[in-house]
Every structure is written in structure tokens, then in C-alpha cells.
Amino acid sequence: MSQNRKPDRQERRRFLTIYGRKAVLEALQDQHMDCRILHMAHSNRGGGVIRDIQRAAQARGLDCRDHSREELARISRNGRQDQGVALDVYCPAMRELHDYINGILTSGMADTPQRLLALDGVTNPQNMGMVIRSAAAAGIEGLLYADRGNPALGPLVIKASAGTVFRAPLLRCESILQGARQLSDAGFDLYRLQADGRRSLFDNEGFARQALFVLGGESDGISRELSALPGENLGIPMSNGVESLNVAVSGALVAYIAANGAQPL
């Protein structure tokens, strides 16, 4: 895609907009990141970091656009903290969930192992970012990322993911419940991490070839609606009176077991 061509709606869903002078400059200096459009406020004073940002963008041949502070705030979605700078970054591994499902069904991959992860009601950006990092490192085929019920893909998530959010296989959907239903209809088995799960995550029985693993939110756990869907509950054994693990720790365990542990049934 040409950097100067206006992306369509589907392409826009593969963009993340980062903001703040330090974050933008670091992104522009990272040659592994596919930076596309630099947005700057008219009111920015030249020199210092602003000059460095402009030079880095020019060296890349980026489309650079000037805006009023109000316009920039709408682009960054955080006018209080954007410091007059925002940058659109293209994330090639990010897809719409329905596109992923259609690809599986039409490409002859219906029998290949597909292991997906979802966080139902997780709202803490640090937890979300750390799970993204673990899922990407483990080799999970996809991590559901909901427009409703998950934190916005902002600086806190990006920082906690150590930048892996830009190359992680995120599958965007409206909600985790909707995504789980879509995957169930496509033949995926659902595995829920629950405190009362009778089967251990670490047993050797194996999992379905196409599986969605769901972890619940920090306070309320997995929603009643998602708990009512057909599926199996899994537990993580606890010792020494420990009741539960942080969702980021649980997410890392699930990601590695799902991607590299028990063999498909």
C-alpha cells in the first residue's frame, strides 16, 4: 500500500495511533515499525524533540499533516497527553476476526491446529499488554481484542507489551462473547479458565485441534453469558493457600501450554 494513499476502513482497523513526543520519536527511529502518517499541531514550537521528530519523519518520507489542537485531539483521542504529536503505525498481523475465520474455512486449513486466546472483561492495560507479549512469544495463532470490554490500544498497553502489540496476531471483534460465538459456529472448541475447573490446564489429555482459551477479568472473572456457552472449564492447580494468579501470569501459562504443550486431540 502506498504510504500516501488514503486507507480504506478495513485497512484502518490495522492501524494504531500512538501519541506523545517521546513515544512518537522512538517509533520513528525503530526501522522495524511501519510508520505511515505523522500528525502535528500547528501550535508546536520548532526545535528540540519536535525538530527531531520532523527530521525522522522526513528521512522516512512520511506523509506529515498539520492540524489544529482540537483536530489533533480527535486523532490521538487524548488531547491532554498527546503533546501535539500523533503517529499512525500499520500493524500487518492485526486482522478482523471474521476475516481470520473466512481465511481458515476457505484456505484448506480447517484441519490445522489453531490456538486462540481471549481475555473476557480484562480492563487493566498493563495486564493486557503483558498477555499480548506472552501470546506473541508463545506462538499463539491469534489473540481476540474486543472493541468493548478490553482497554484501548494506547500507550499503557503498548508499553506493557514491550512494543509487541505492533506485530502480535490480534483479532479484532466487537466483544469477546460475540467472538466466542463466531468461533464456536466455525468449529472451535471453547476452554474457560475457571477456579472450579475440574480438569487441570497441565494434564496430558490434549485439546481440540481448533481451540479458544478464555481468561476472565480481574474482578468479575468470565461473564455469565460466556460461561453458559458450550465448552470445558480448566483450572490451574494452587498450593500453599493461594487462591488465584494474576491474569497476566495465567495468560502466559495458557499461551505456552496451548501453543507448545499438550498435543491436539
Q: In terms of topology, how is this protein built?
A:
Elements: H1 9-12, E1 15-19, H2 21-29, E2 34-41, H3 48-60, E3 63-67, H4 69-76, E4 85-90, E5 95-96, H5 97-106, E6 114-120, H6 125-138, E7 142-146, H7 155-160, E8 170-173, H8 176-185, E9 189-193, E10 199-200, E11 210-216, H9 224-227, E12 232-235, H10 247-260
Parallel strand pairs: 2-3, 5-8, 6-7, 6-11, 7-8, 9-11, 9-12, 10-12
Antiparallel strand pairs: 1-4, 2-4
Helix pairs in contact: 2-3, 6-10
Architecture overview:
The protein has 265 residues and is of the alpha/beta class. The protein has two domains: 9-90, 60s Ribosomal Protein L30, Chain: A, CATH 3.30.1330.30; 95-260, Alpha/beta knot (3-Layer(aba) Sandwich). It has helices at residues 9-12, 21-29, 48-60, 69-76, 97-106, 125-138, 155-160, 176-185, 224-227, 247-260, and strands spanning 15-19, 34-41, 63-67, 85-90, 95-96, 114-120, 142-146, 170-173, 189-193, 199-200, 210-216, 232-235. It has an eight-stranded parallel sheet with strand order 5-8-7-6-11-9-12-10, with helices on both faces. Helix 6 (125-138) links the parallel strand 6 and strand 7 (142-146). It is elongated, with a radius of gyration of 20 Å. The N and C termini lie far apart (40 Å).
